[in-house]
Structure formats: C-alpha cells, structure tokens
Amino acid sequence: MKWLRILNHRKYLQRMFFYVNLSMAGLLIITALSIYFYSQQTILQTQKEANQKVLLQIKHNLTYINDIVRNIGLMASIDPGVIYLMNAVEPEPVMKFQTLRKLDMMTDSTTFIDSILILNGTTRSYYSGGSGMWTRQHWEGLQARLTGLLEAGDSEAVARLVPLKLEEAGPNVDLFSFILTENYPESGTLPNSIIVNIRPQWIFENISGLDNLSDGDSGMILVDQHGQMLQSGADATEAELETRRQVVSAVHAGSDRDEAFSVQRVDGRAYVISEMNVGVSQWKVMNILPYTQVLGRAETLRNITLALTVVFLAASLLLSAFVTNRLYRPVGKLLELFRGDGTGPVEAAPYGSRDEMSYISHAVRTTLARLREADRDEGRNRQIMSDYYLRRWVTDSRSMTDEELDHCAEASPELLGDLREQTWQLAVVGMDATSDGAGAANAVNASSATSAVGATRAVAPLAQEKLYRFAACNIMEETIARRYPNRVVDMNNGYIVVLIRVRPEKAELEVLHELLADALGTYKRYYGQRTFTAAVSDTVARCREVTALYEQTVQQFMYRVAFPPGAVITPADVRSNMARVDFTLPSELERRLAEGIRTRDEGAIRSALERVFEQVASLHYDYMPYAVMQLVLLVKQVLREPVFAPYVNAVELQRLNHHVIRAESLASMRELLEQVLLQLCRTEPSEPKEDRNTIIVDTIKEFIETNYADVNLSLQSIAAYLKMSSAYVGRIFKQYEQCSVGDYLNGYRLDRACELLADSSYNVKEIANYLGFSNASYFITLFKKRNGVTPKEYRMNATLGKP
C-alpha cells in the first residue's frame, strides 16, 4: 500500500512507466500486425497463382473439347450421305439407312457424344445417329427445343456449345449441343443443320477432376455469358446451390473482366474468388473458396502472435518498472532540492496536480522571469539615471560637481569617456506639425472655419506622439552612429538633443548635416509626411560649456520659423539674423503694400508681401513676431478704411491676427495674408445681403455637419429646411465655397470616414451605413477617388503610422 501511495504522488514516474510500456507495446503490436498482414497477402498471392494454373488447365481442356466437337461436326457436314439427307425431300430408304448407320458408328466411337442429328430444313425432318439413351428418351422435346433455337435465328446458338435444358427452371443441364448450319433460307423454313450433342457429365467431370478443394458451397463453377451456372452439382444441397448462385451473381454484377481475383462478402461470409474467360461460347470458369479456408494458417499465425504479444507485455511491465525506477532517481533528488529542505517524503511535494518536471520547469521559468524582470528594471533604472545625468549635463553643466560629471561619464562611456579631453557637438531637434494648421480665409469674411474638403490638422493622441518621438530618436541615433559616437536624449520639454562626440580635426558640419538629412529621409519613409527640424551647433571642448552651447543651439533652432519643415539649420545659416538689432519694417515696403491693397492690385500685393517677409526672415528671432504683428496691424488698418466696408466682415477682421500668429512658419503666415488679400481683390462690393448669404452658407455647413449621417440628406432636403429653392441655395453655396453642396457633403463624410477608419473597429460596410452612404461600393469608389487608396488600405496605413 505504501508503495502504491508513493507511486500515486510520483506522477512523472507514472508517465515514464506509461510511455516506456506504450512504446514497447506499440512497437510489438505494429510488428505483429505487419507480420500478420504480410503473411495474409502472401497466402492470397499464392492462392491466386495456384487458382490461375488450375483455371488455365480447365480453359485448355474446354477449348480442346470444343475443337473436337467442331471437327466432328465439320466431318459430318461434308459427308455425301449427310448432304443428301439434308436436302432430299423423300430420301431413298437404302441411302438413308447407310447414312444413319455411318452416323451411328461415328457416335458410338466417341464416348462423350450422345448423338448426332441431321436437320432437313425444307421438310423439318430430324435424323438421329448414335445410341444415346437420353436423345431417344427425350426425342420429341429435343426436337422442339432445337427447332425453337433455329427459328429464333439466334446467332449465339450457332457454331458453339449451347447448354440445353428441357426444363428451364431445372437445376441441371441436359445436353450441350454444337449446331452447324449451311445457310438460313427464306422465312418459314429452317436451315439445313448438323447438331452434335455432348453429354454434360463429360465436361463437368473434366472440371471437377481438377478441383480438389471444393466443398458443398465452393469449388469450380462453369458460368455462361449471362451469369447463369452451368454446373449445378448433383451432390450439393439446395442451400449450397443458392449460396453458389448468390456468389456468381455478385461477381457477375461487379466485374466485366476476363480475369479477376477478389475477395467478396456474400451474406456475411467472405469468399476468395478467381475467374477466367475460357474462350468457349463466352463461358467463364470460377473458383470459389471460403476465405477462412484459404487463410486458415494466417489466422493460426495471428492467434500465436497475439499470445506471444500478451506474454511479452507482461514481461515488459516488470522490466519497465525496474528501468523507470532507476531512471527516476535523479529526478527525485532534483525535486527534493527544489523543495528546499531536502528531507521528507516525496509524496508531500507542493506541485499539486502537475508532475514533478512540470513543477521544476515552472519553478525555473518563474525564477528566470523574475531575473529578467529585475534585469529590465535595472536596465530601465540605469537608462533613467543615464538620461538624468545627460540632461543635467546639457542643462546645468556649469553647476555640476566633479563627482556628478564622473557619474555622467560612467553612464555613457562611449560618448563621454574622459570628460576633460573630448570635443562635442549638439543637435537640437523638434518635431514638425503634420500640416500647416489654419485653412485659407475666404474672400469676404476671412472665415476661420476650414472647408470640409480642405486640410485639417491631424492631432494624434499623446501616447502616439510619444511613439513617433521615440522612433525619431532611434533612427537619428542609429544613423549618426555610422560616423560618430552619440546619444539622443528627449529633454521632455519639446526638444530632442543629439549629443555627438567628435575629434577636433574631424568636426565637419556638412557630414553631420548629411547624416541628419538621411535620418529624416528614413523617418519619412516609415511615417509618411511626418518630419523634424534640427539645428546643429559648433564644437565645444570643455564639458562645463555644454549648457551654453545648448542654449545657443536652442536659440538657433528657434529660427525654424524661417525655414521649411525638415530643414537642418547650421550656425552659418542664422549668423546674420543674430547680428541684427533692428526690427522695424522699411516704411517704403509698408507704403507699397498699403497702396497695393487700396488699388486691389494682385501683383503689387504679392510683390510687397514677398519683400516684406524676406525682410522679416532676415531679422533676429526675438523681433520676428513684432515685425509680423506690425504687418498685420498695417493690413487691418488699411482694411478698416471706409472704402473696404462692403468687402470686409468687421468681426472676422478682428480675428485675423489670431490666425496669423497660430501659423507654424513665416511661409504659412505669408500664404494666409496673401490669400485673404487676393480674395479681397477678386470680390465685388456687396450690399448688406452679403452677410445674409454668408449666414446661409454657414447654416448649410452646420446643417451638414450635424445631419451628415442621414442617408436622405441632399440639396433638396436642406433647401426645404431653409424654405428656399434648391437652385438658389446651390448657387449661393457654390459661389462662396467653390464646390457644390453634394461635393461638400461627400467631402465631410469622407473626412469622418478617415477618422473612423483610424480610431474605430467598425468594418467598411458599417462605416458606409453610419455615414449615410446608400451602398458600400459607392462609398469605396468615392473614398479611393479622393484619397488614392481604398478604405482597407487607409486603415492599414493608419495602423502602421503612415498617412
């Protein structure tokens, strides 16, 4: 009992015991089955070959008999006396006697011939030769049967052995008749014929003489072309005869081959069947043997194999118990070590329903996971401390102690090394906005609302923006590492600082410029139109001057407003700006701009704005906002003159400076002012109803933005809501928005579709239905026409961070 209790807790031992026995038993069973099936196939093949030999001999004998009978019939047919009897209407008695006497002698000299008949087709007279008892006893029935065959004109009954049964329902064949005819005359008469009648016992005895394995329901069977048995078996019972008929019927229905060897099941009993076309009268000879009789030795072999398998399994159980116990000893000792104390019974192991190795593996995995987590925590802590010291060094190198500087060097030895004998460069990087932000103002009211078909600012969630910044840091660090040791630190204040260690004789701004441009190209390939702008510093050789260099580079970076997105700004690019101390715009440029606005001269406005912003771009960064505001105040001052009252909405004019200040660059500011002023030049003065039209357009846009999901929303429904004609509403809207109501509605819906594809899990059909499209196909067509990609492709790009 104690041994069973210990074994119950040693689950790994149980598995070892089970698998060892399973493998041994499985191998033995597979081997035994293979031997059994191989022997079975070998016995069947041997039986097939033996049957083929017997069937070939029977075929030869039947062919020989058929040839003998044919020759006898041909010899009789050329005899003059036979020819005379076949054609004479009233034959002479002497001639008739002589001919029949000759036939008697021919018939009696051959043991297997019962009789030879001559048929005069004209007189329908039969003449019989031979002393066959059966023919004499059944003379009238035989004549009627033969006459019926000849009258039917059955070609299968001519020149071949034909089995005759006077009683069709009877089991026995009475005679085999071989009929030779001269010709088939006109209808109503019979052909002149020679009929050689063969005793059936002679053929059947010839077959049975070669069959030494038959019993009541098996053995050699002769079958005609219709699948009917010709050999009935005089010593067989009715049940045995019925079994034979069923087997013959099954084989005849399932096989049309001349030769076959198969195993078939009839009434739940299997038979091994061989058959062959004997070439005589389309007969087949079949050999039927019970499957158990053929495979009796294989069954004996199977029983012996089964007994040996059971004995072997019993012995393997004892052997495997000894082997597995020896193999389990190291596992048991290892389990005791994992339990901690090394004492106590193994069955008290704390692994619950799992086996010992699962428990040990779980303990190892748990320990390794804790070690990896501790290592990750340690790595994160080291990274945090490393970034902390680097930020301290960048932002406060003047006040850092020598000990803190040493810690900083230890945090990044590849970058800092000996702080007192190195040269560094900085690059301050900032992420650019994904679009220009404010849309163009319209011609009359300088509306701040962007068009639904215009660009909108893509504001990504904070977490996603952090991922973009992290990706930019990695790309820059890997790209610059091709030439220089470096570290990229996110300062958490909007700036990314790239710390680069250079040798004084190898400090090349052009090389660093190319590396940052290459990093920008890589970043754009992965994240679409997202870019970053960088400012590259000069070199510094004193570790405590890094903060001053950082502050100088940040000031240099602020000039990004004068450069396009993705620029790399070097000190030489802004040296002239930083040297300037004035910020007043030339009065001549202000005058020329004011005159261009008053005269509504588009060329003069463009030229003046271009010159003005060139002057702004050359100023010190501190003075650029003042210069731009001075320009905006000048424009507002001119537009407040009474002559512009019909053109300008006073409320929107107050917000002009707000739109300009929010622009990301001087180019965006110039574009905004230029669009407002040029649209002003192209607008005719309007009566107070202009404000009314603006209100109508704003109302239509608000109505669309509120009810865009309505599938029935259209120009007609909006006009009905406003109690106006659809033609008037459509004309006013197109005049102000440069697009139809339908285009604006589809554009707004497609913008909402982009948001849903990027931020929701709805499928394309659900989004189309939600946005009011009549069907998904039309939605997909419009979406691809507007965005260049299908909705699914847009969602995939959004998931991958591409635009």
TrEMBL record:
<dbReference type="InterPro" id="IPR009057">
    <property type="entry name" value="Homeodomain-like_sf"/>
</dbReference>
<dbReference type="GO" id="GO:0003700">
    <property type="term" value="F:DNA-binding transcription factor activity"/>
</dbReference>
<keyword id="KW-1133">Transmembrane helix</keyword>
<keyword id="KW-0812">Transmembrane</keyword>
<feature type="domain" description="HTH araC/xylS-type">
    <location>
        <begin position="698"/>
        <end position="797"/>
    </location>
</feature>
<dbReference type="GO" id="GO:0043565">
    <property type="term" value="F:sequence-specific DNA binding"/>
</dbReference>
<dbReference type="Pfam" id="PF12833">
    <property type="entry name" value="HTH_18"/>
</dbReference>
<feature type="transmembrane region" description="Helical">
    <location>
        <begin position="16"/>
        <end position="38"/>
    </location>
</feature>
<dbReference type="InterPro" id="IPR018062">
    <property type="entry name" value="HTH_AraC-typ_CS"/>
</dbReference>
<dbReference type="InterPro" id="IPR020449">
    <property type="entry name" value="Tscrpt_reg_AraC-type_HTH"/>
</dbReference>
<keyword id="KW-0238">DNA-binding</keyword>
<keyword id="KW-0472">Membrane</keyword>
<protein>
    <submittedName>
        <fullName>AraC family transcriptional regulator</fullName>
    </submittedName>
</protein>
<keyword id="KW-0805">Transcription regulation</keyword>
<keyword id="KW-0804">Transcription</keyword>
<dbReference type="InterPro" id="IPR018060">
    <property type="entry name" value="HTH_AraC"/>
</dbReference>
